[in-house]
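does this look right to u?? EPZ version
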Amino acid sequence: MDKFIINGGKKISGEVNISGAKNAVLPLMTAALLVDGKTTINSVPDLRDTRTMMRLLNIIGAEASLKANSMCINASKINNLEAPYDLVKTMRASFYVLGPLLARFGEVRVSLPGGCAWGPRPVDFHLKGLEKLGAEISLESGYIMAKAKRLYGNKICFDFPSVGATGNILMASVLARGETCIENAAKEPEIVQLCHVLNNMGANIGGIGSSKIIVNGVDNLNPIDIDVIPDRIEAGTYLIAGAVMGDITLNNCNPKHLKDVLDKLKLAGANISSNENSISINKIDSISAVDVTTEVYPGFPTDLQAQWMAFMSIANGRSSIVDTVYHDRFTHIPELIRLGADIRLNGNKAEINGVEKLIGAQVMSTDIRASAALILGAIIAEGKTEISRVYHIDRGYDSIEKKFQSLGVDIVRVNE
Ligand code: EPZ
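got this back:
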């Protein structure tokens, strides 16, 4: 298993290219299952999760291959309508095969994802939505069995604007008979891209980017070429690194997708300039404490909550962070405390008292974003930090140590 060794406390500077978005490419890869032919996806980030999804597609019989950052998916010979537990347990996004396979083939067997490091993450919205479209859903030995000769449009209203459920129901309803109305739908940029891609394939989706999406089913879809949008969460992670340790420019990113994050960074004292696809940020000499409450898009993303906490750990004064999307997403706190941070947790609210400095230590990754926060903590901290279990970070960040090395961070990957 790999670990990172970081000697922190050093100023950083330079430019970094942002990769394609993990949370956009994963549903796009499953959308390719809807077409009888070859789909090409460009700007694919090289991540453990994209490789896991590729393995799943190959198991299903969709020939998927990745060359440089371009993926080809040929879904004309699908012969196995099952997503096995061994894969689904390593990546919840595997559950995205449910909608497209059910819509195209009328039956599918997908392992239930189970929980994750910060608690249960149910999929009831996905299942209730598919039942509304006429699917028969049953649970057999930990697997969801879904059947429907043909899906029929219906009105679906989510209790919470779930990204995953919106994606699955979208991919199911594009081939359903009649009209589907999805209310309280997710508005994340990754869902907006999925809608545009499905329409380019020949679907008929309206209300894109709003909380009420209307889908009129079609009989079939056509293969297309796709370019994945930039990863706003990766961009947010590097912006925070710049705010604490140096002057950096991010290329190939979309400032519009980061409005709330940029506003909060400015409140903390950051000097930021941007244009259509790049953002520059300078090191903040005296960081102001800024409260954050995570929300669904366009609010502050929960996937940047841990990184913001590492940032606030050296701010002047006290700040609070409330996570309204995942109430238990705080496994990074004990590890940040090991670096010398002063953080108290009460329910889904963390109080951070800014300290003078952090000091290097041995810490452990627990999930993708928690490990990104530990890397930021280590870059800030004086002395040496060792971060174990970095396979978590490889799931969601493309070549992170190379990108940070190019900014002057003293980081190496060591095989334990
Ligand atoms: C997506 O997860 C992202 N993953 C997550 O990013 C992200 O944190 C999350 O959206 C929120 O923005 C991918 O896109 C692959 P949800 P998803 O369904 O779709 C509850 C990362 O680090 N809920 O929007 O699983 C759920 O428990 C990952 O890149 C139900 O109760 O999130 C949560 O509290 C981590 N029942 C809330 O809704 C359901 O059926 C939001 O979940 C579905 C969700």
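Residues 22-23, 26, 92-93, 121-126, 160, 162-165, 302-303, 325-326, 368-369, 396 surround EPZ (CB under 6 Å). idk if thats expected tbh
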